[in-house]
Design a protein that fits this description.
Structural class of chain A: alpha/beta
CATH class of the largest domain in chain B: Alpha Beta
CATH superfamily of the largest domain in chain A: HUPs
CATH class of the largest domain in chain A: Alpha Beta
Largest sheet of chain A: 6 strands, mixed
Order of helices and strands of chain A: HHHEHEHEHHHEEEHEEEEHEHEHHH
Protein name (chain B): Sulfite reductase (NADPH) hemoprotein beta-component
Distance between the termini of chain B: 60 Å
Number of strands of chain A: 12
Keywords (chain B): 4Fe-4S, Heme, Iron, Iron-sulfur, Metal-binding, Oxidoreductase
Helix content of chain A: 25-40%
Organism (chain B): Paracoccus isoporae
CATH topology of the largest domain in chain B: Sulfite Reductase Hemoprotein, domain 1
Strand content of chain B: 15-25%
Pfam families (chain B): NIR_SIR, NIR_SIR_ferr
Mean pLDDT of chain A: 83
Mean pLDDT of chain B: 94
Number of strands of chain B: 21
CATH topology of the largest domain in chain A: Rossmann fold
GO molecular function (chain B): 4 iron, 4 sulfur cluster binding; heme binding; metal ion binding; oxidoreductase activity
Helix content of chain B: 25-40%
Oligomer: heterodimer
Structural class of chain B: alpha+beta
CATH superfamily of the largest domain in chain B: Sulfite Reductase Hemoprotein, domain 1
Shape of chain B: globular
Number of domains of chain B: 4
Number of domains of chain A: 2
Radius of gyration of chain A: 25 Å
Distance between the termini of chain A: 35 Å
Largest interface: A-B, 45 and 47 residues
Shape of chain A: elongated
CATH architecture of the largest domain in chain A: 3-Layer(aba) Sandwich
Number of helices of chain A: 14
Number of helices of chain B: 19
Radius of gyration of chain B: 23 Å
């Protein structure tokens, strides 16, 4: 906790970074960004679209082991997939990670693959925004290939921006480049072009939502043509797009011996100051001396993660009408978070060692709700 | 049969993905071996003697030809070309690599199969009568209820870390072919005033403390089934012992606290669980039941071909006598295909045999296949006219053995050849008994006789309910086999009694032979089965045959 408070706020850091790098060229921004401690762990996100190869080439010159996240929406042009493999091989990129929505998420939200026709925003969310945010959770900053010239929505973009989708900084080394700059760079370095560029596609997204652009149109006019949609939800400017899930909280780093409270929103420090009713895993809820009704916080012990009695205790308390805070404490592992939540617990308390071995992303991924049979069968948890 | 819905599909895919992630976190060290263990177990992955083992559920024993072919594919692609059908309607693959298992699960998910809760301290794969929907004696098909229970128990957040494993079986017929009273919960369908419900027994189990389940409620209406089951599990999760693994099953709680105390507890919990269910489960049940509609059977087709083959071919006749059961429709028969060719490993099937079974079921059998708890494969709807052709195909593939219910139709656990818990080998004993009685050509004369073999005290081979049970133990590093007599796994369930001192691996086959010869000498007539004779005469003459006087003197 203490060390976090000494770090300047994110807007202040972003402003400082923009001042420091103001007069640099793209490649300098990129080179320094990759080793700047203020930016932490950096990944590049690339669509392997019309212009991507320029930035990818720069990355390959600086550090070809840089993680490159490629979002395969499973709706891409086949040419994009072929081009992606070709470029990665030619540039010798060693850590290209293909990011996809989970099959379960697709089966749940878009089983027939027609969501793009009924609700393109939801489709972008499902296939791009959610998987990307998940993939980015282990990074502190990410590099994009966006440029000011690409559209009205991007005309004021800086090298560094806060990423409203999480506690991350976005790096836009090509922010000031023009279409001409891109074309020159690609030609001078004899880089392969996306095959669709010569067919009238200056900006390439998913097959159902991309059409060719005519002479004189905004280069991104072919994206979501005929709709008022201009950005996919990964990127947005001036807080205008609000479809991105709420920002993840700042990572909480516990000190040795400090308990960690795991909630749906992430790890956090103990914040409860009131009285706590502690129950052992073999507590007898039918004991008349047990004044459960008076409690505002009940904490149920898990002496071992294999001792599942606490789940039944929690469910019985909820069925009996207990509305206060309910916490599982002790040895609970990440994979048990959904069981705890579905049994009526609000949160889990673990020790700092376990929190280090099983960091927040493990808990978050485990908690990603699986389809629930009980819900389908009309069985309430309380 | 039940077809996986979009929901089921999404669930198994999600689950397979979670397991892939868990394997990765085990490899990275984020999960310790101890933490990974229950997670892999609840996904059907055991660590055996030589390798990992994957146990795949065949819920209530029902499997489609496409699913069977997928099992064959898995056997060829990731295992050694065969699989092993278990005594609880699962199939096990004994040689997968841990890193391949997520791919195997993905492959299973594509055909609506999974390995969820086939192991671990969870509610296990629900089993049911393998003749469901076809047997002449059934009140109603129990499988819709079994499927409802499967859905309810799958990923139930409260019951993934129970004191111990928990097994449920459902029978839809007064003749119990699902050994319901050897389960933690046994459900026997009964009718009361035109209403269908279940007689619920609890606390049955085999293992080191074999106990027959006791009736906790004589009639639970089907509408209350899930809340009632939830009440039993809630009570068990509270009172089941956690201090001793061998005392942790529900049967011990029932034994120690008494059935009346358990009943009281369950009733109190039922008052809590009943209001939690809003009735949607009945709509789901109705939807499930539609999928178990009776197949369309052919009317008026002649069965003359069957009668002709019976008259002409003694091998066919012998097979028809042992391997067929009565179907609701007399023109049809229920075929049981023996996986117990003399000298083979009971329950093993090669990928070629699996594909053949799938083909036959598709061509002749309404695409319906079942796996029985006796480790055989059942085709429940076969027109009698097709039997000669089917028998010929089965024989060619080594699946034509005429021994269902006979001395060589042995249940045996994997034993020391595979299992880390085993204290002795089971499979070679089963093979030698089968081979010996085949040599003697006595099998059909002996008639119905169930021999069951377990390679350790945990009793996976159900030896307690064998008419003759054999339990392999380790006596100072030497395999030693104890014999139990008079067990019964049907609606008249009883636990076999130990006959006396054990036998070495060289002595056990001659001992069984003496025992069976002794029975043949004392039975009233050829209709009196081994079990009937035992019940009439008591253990003395059987013990005399097992332990001849001159050996006693020596």
């Amino acid at each position: 906790m203490a060390q976090l408070q000494t770090i300047p706020t994110r807007p202040a850091r972003v402003a400082a970074l923009n001042r420091r790098y103001r007069h640099r060229a793209a490649i300098q921004v990129l080179r320094e960004a990759l080793s700047d401690p203020e930016l932490g762990r950096v990944a590049m996100v690339s669509s392997f679209g019309a212009d991507s190869v320029a930035l990818l080439h720069m990355i390959s010159l600086i550090d070809r082991t840089t993680p490159v996240l490629f979002i395969d929406t499973q709706m891409l042009f086949p040419e994009t997939l072929t081009y992606q493999a070709e470029v990665a091989a030619k540039l010798g990129l060693t850590d290209v990670r293909t990011i996809r929505a989970t099959p379960a998420a697709i089966a749940a939200a878009d089983p027939d693959g027609d969501l793009n026709q009924t609700n393109p925003d939801a489709c972008c969310d499902l296939r791009k925004t959610v998987p990307l945010n998940r993939a980015l959770s282990s990074f502190d900053s990410w590099i994009t290939g966006r440029k000011r010239f690409q559209g009205a929505t991007r005309s004021e973009m800086e090298f560094f921006e806060e990423d409203p989708a999480g506690d991350r900084i976005k790096i836009n080394p090509l922010a000031h480049w023009t279409a001409r700059d891109v074309a020159d760079y690609i030609a001078n370095n004899r880089l392969p072009r996306h095959p669709l560029v010569s067919k009238g596609y200056p900006s390439i997204g998913c097959m159902p939502c991309t059409s060719p652009v005519k002479e004189g149109e905004d280069p991104r006019a072919g994206r979501w043509r005929g709709q008022d949609k201009t950005e996919c939800g990964i990127h947005f400017v001036n807080g205008k797009m609000q479809r991105i899930p709420p920002a993840a909280p700042a990572p909480f780093v516990p000190a040795d011996g400090q308990p960690v409270i795991v909630r749906d929103s992430g790890f956090g420090p103990e914040d409860w100051t009131g009285p706590i009713l502690d129950l052992a895993s073999d507590a007898d809820l039918d004991d008349p001396d047990l004044r459960v009704g008076d409690a505002t916080m009940i904490r149920i012990a898990f002496p071992s993660f294999t001792d599942g009695r606490g789940f039944t205790l929690a469910r019985r308390l909820r069925v009996a009408g207990y509305k206060g805070r309910l916490r599982a404490t002790g040895y609970v592992i990440a994979d048990q978070l959904p069981m705890a939540r579905r049994s009526g617990f609000d949160e889990v308390e673990i020790d700092a060692d376990l929190a280090r071995r099983q960091p927040w992303p493990h808990w978050r991924d485990a908690a990603d709700a699986a389809p629930s049979y009980l819900k389908k069968l009309g069985r309430r948890a309380s | 049969m039940y077809h996986h819905s979009e929901f089921d599909r999404a669930f198994v895919i999600d689950r397979a993905e979670r397991f892939r992630d868990q394997v990765n976190r085990r490899i990275s060290g984020a999960l310790t071996e101890e933490e990974f263990r229950p997670l892999r177990l609840m996904n059907g992955v055991y660590l055996q003697l030589h390798a990992y083992m994957l146990r795949i559920a065949i819920p209530y024993g029902t499997i489609s030809p496409d699913q069977m072919r997928r099992l064959a594919h898995i056997a060829d692609r990731w295992d050694k070309g065969y699989g092993h059908f278990t005594t609880r309607q699962n199939i096990q693959f004994n040689w997968p690599k841990l890193v391949d298992i997520p791919d195997m699960l993905d492959s299973l998910a594509e055909v609506g199969m999974h390995a969820i809760q086939t192991s671990g301290n969870t509610i296990r794969n629900v089993t049911a009568d393998h003749f469901s929907g076809a047997a002449a004696d059934e009140i109603a098909d129990p499988r819709p209820y079994a499927e409802l229970i499967r859905q309810w128990s799958t990923d139930h957040p409260e019951f993934q870390f129970l004191p111990r494993k928990f097994k449920i079986a459902v029978s839809g017929s007064p003749n119990d072919r699902a050994v319901v009273k050897s389960h933690d919960i046994g459900l026997r369908m009964v009718r009361r005033d035109d209403q269908i419900g279940f007689e619920v027994s609890v606390g049955g189990g085999l293992g080191r403390t074999p106990l027959v389940g006791k009736v906790v409620n004589e009639f639970v209406p089907t509408t209350d089934l899930l809340p009632y089951l939830e009440a039993i599990l809630s009570a068990y999760n509270t009172v089941g012992r956690r201090d001793n693994k061998y005392k942790a099953r529900l049967k011990i709680a029932v034994q120690e606290l008494g059935i009346d105390h358990i009943r009281e507890l369950v009733e109190a919990r039922f008052a809590e669980t009943r209001p939690m269910f809003d009735g949607s489960d009945q709509a789901v049940l109705a939807e499930i039941a539609k999928q178990f509609a009776q197949p369309e059977l052919v009317e008026g087709r002649s069965t003359a071909a069957y009668d002709a083959a019976r008259d002409a071919d003694p091998v066919f006749r012998s097979w028809a006598d042992t391997n067929l059961h009565d179907h609701k429709n007399p023109d049809y028969a229920i075929v049981t295909v023996s996986t117990k060719k003399h000298g083979a490993t009971p329950g093993d099937a090669t990928s070629d045999q699996m594909r053949l079974l799938a083909d036959i079921a598709e061509e002749y059998g309404q695409g319906d296949l079942r796996i029985s708890h006796e480790q055989n494969v059942v085709m429940p709807h076969i027109h009698r006219a097709d039997l000669p052709a089917i028998h010929a195909k089965l024989r060619e593939a080594g699946l034509g053995t005429a021994n269902i219910g006979l001395v060589s139709d042995i249940i045996a656990c994997p034993g020391l050849d595979y299992c880390a818990l085993a204290t002795a080998r089971s499979i070679p004993i089963a093979q030698q008994i089968a081979t010996r009685f085949d040599e003697l050509k006595l099998e059909h004369e002996i008639g119905e006789l169930k021999i069951k073999i377990s390679g350790c005290i945990n009793a996976c081979g159900h030896h307690h309910v064998g008419h003759i049970g054999i339990l392999g133990l380790d006596r100072a590093g030497v395999e030693n086999y104890q014999v139990t007599l008079g067990g019964d796994g049907t609606e008249t369930m009883s636990v076999g009694e130990r006959a006396g001192p054990g036998f070495s691996k060289d002595e056990i086959i001659p001992a069984i032979e003496r025992l069976v010869q002794g029975y043949l000498a004392i039975r009233e007539d050829e209709d009196e089965t081994f079990l009937q004779a035992y019940r009439r005469l008591g253990p003395a003459p059987f013990k005399a045959a097992l332990y001849p006087a001159e050996e006693k003197a020596a």
